[in-house]
Design a protein that fits this description.
- The protein is α/β, with parallel strands linked by helices.
- It contains five helices and five strands; from the N terminus they run H-E-H-E-H-E-H-E-H-E.
- Strands 4-3-2-1-5 form a five-stranded parallel sheet, with helices on both faces.
- The termini are far apart.
Amino acid sequence: MKKILFSFVIAMSVFSAAFSQEKKLKVVWDVADADTATTAGVFRQVNNALSLVPDLEIEVVFHGPAIYNMVKDSTVFASRIVIAKQKGVQLSVCNNSMKRLKVDASQLVQEAGVVPSAVVELIKRQAEGWSYLKAE
């Protein structure tokens, strides 16, 4: 009986330890709108989220006309982009949108990364367990 009780206590301890560890939070933002108010809102939300969860893993995916907010010579978000990158935020730009809108990678801010397809990137992140937020 003592062996069974001891085994039960050990099993419960292992079970409790496994569930007491918090799962790392990850979120991907979907930004397709060229409206600067929408992008400003995303940067504000990113900062608010990071202030509450400093180790939150974040990717912001820009596609469609939103990619213009990542073009170095025309963006009004240069300082916010730098700050976000310094905080570990991954800023991704859709290559399909770049081709369609005739934007070359050399035109993007240096903090931007290029993904082949925004849609595929968003699907992959969700399949990996990331939360999804649509910028509006």
